[in-house]
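re: ur question from yesterday

yeah so i grabbed the chain u mentioned. its 598 aa long if i counted rite. heres the sequnce exactly as i have it in my notes:
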Amino acid sequence: MANHMEDASLQPGATPADAVHGGTWFGHPRQLARLFTTEMWERFGYYGMRALLTLYLANYFLFSDRTTNGLYGGFTALVYLTPLVGGLLADRYLGSKRSVKFGAIVMAIGYLTLSLGAAFGEEAKPFATIDGQRYDVTVDKASADKQQYVTLGADKLAIKGQEDGSVDLVAADGTVAKTVAKGGFEPGGERSPFFTLVLIAGLSIVTMGNGFFKPNISTMVGELYPKGDKRRDAGFTIFYMGINLGSLLSQALCPFLASAVGWWAGFGLAAAGMLFSWTLIQFDGGRLGGYGEPPANGPDRSMIIFICALVAVPVIYFLFTNLMAAPRPVEGSGFVGYLVSLPLMGKLLFGTFLLGIPTILIWSWKVGSKVELQMMLAAMVLIVFNVVFWTLFEQAGSSLTLFADRNTDLSIFGLFTITAGQTQTFNALFIVLLAPLMSILWTSLARKGLEPPIPIKFAIALVGVGLGFLFLVWGASFVGPDFKVGIWWLAGLYFIHSVAELCISPVGLSMITKLSIARIVGMMMGVWFLSISCAQYVAGVVAQFASVETVGGQVTNAKVALETYIGVFTQIAIFAIIAGIVLFLLSFPLKRWMHGVT
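ran it thru and got these structure tokens back, copy pasting raw so excuse formatting
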């Protein structure tokens, strides 16, 4: 991108402030270029790490699918929850710039922790407990199906999972040497307690740093524009393109390095991106002077806050370990039994969300007018459906990534093969390509008075998620003897999901600011992010239903794995489409309650 060095007064839409601070960049304040790049490299680090996380947990640490998906969901839930605290501390004490600097360096330390853990640790060693006795397991990673073997006496027997849940142990001549009844074969992994601690510590550090960085870099972008500056929306559009550009690059490169060199290299590249982001904001050469500064005449409590933040890392660590140790719900215990079995993180998220919505609505009823109450009701209904959307959409990083690893032919036209982690680039690529087209579409429809209202857009998004999963289910009907779906069916799912995302994601925050009672807009923004946090957690729970039996990180029966995934994806699709239809029917009263907000 070329830099425009002309005097600000020559740029369309430029303000006197632009001249004071050094001119414009594509008609916007020049500081936008640095914040754009800072955000791009931060997202490079985050999405690069996230593209590896599920596969790292399942294939390196050999956690069960239930633990892997639960831990992934818990991590992404806290990623959306901690910014509520980080934003509040920045507003009152730190200022956005110091918060971003602190968050960037802490996140870099977190990624480096993950990289060092992978570099110096050892992969978990697979084993199986058969009828109460433990046996070592070996995996032939050079074979196409990565066959697992267990040694019983002098015999090396192949492990073959059966559709009824039993396991056949097959001799070299193809005869079944032993059949283990359902429940008698329990796979496991012997992993280092120390390096497991390093893993959870790394995730905890990343979570804490993200809480300081994520909300405050956007706040600084907002400060670049004077009140009423019509360039603001376009500026944020440019800024958010940095997110997609960073994620596109990292989701292609980090999984490649992890596969070609080692897990440590993939996490190391994420750390390098994050360090570059920190360098840009730390050594800004005074270009960001006057932006993101702490409140004037307020007490300097930065050191106390930084120390408390680091002390809070063990609290996050405890939440993760508590989540991993959560017992399975007792069969037949129903919804109450499920709530009782929730880990502490789940109880806190759901408790806050389920109590917060009615409490805010009761307050709105008491202090607001009838119109304000109706607008708040509309906002809350849309927030609930927002939870549904992101719960289903966010299967991308968990169940869909494992599906790509186990039941997808990752060959590109027979020329080369990508990794399962790299399949996540499809979403970022489609967002970059489709976002301008969708913007043009909405603008064109708006000129003709045909642009759908916000509830209809939400409904379209929900139906779109369902159609994406149905597209993949359709593709599964064409699998061959290897029970693998062609990669283009998975790419088609991401294409449909990207269109759906563009129907809901860009309008959500704007909707909250327009519908909320002015005195509690900040609180409502918190509820919005809380809803996404809950959705991330529930996404991990939903992914657990797609758990399949693995030994040494590999499925024991590809057919059973495919049927399991397709069964869950079908249920998700049906639920999403029904939810979309329900919201479509509700859109008519919601439109009245919104009183002209579009």
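noticed a couple things. The radius of gyration is 25 Å. also The first helix runs from residue 16 to 20.
anyway ttyl
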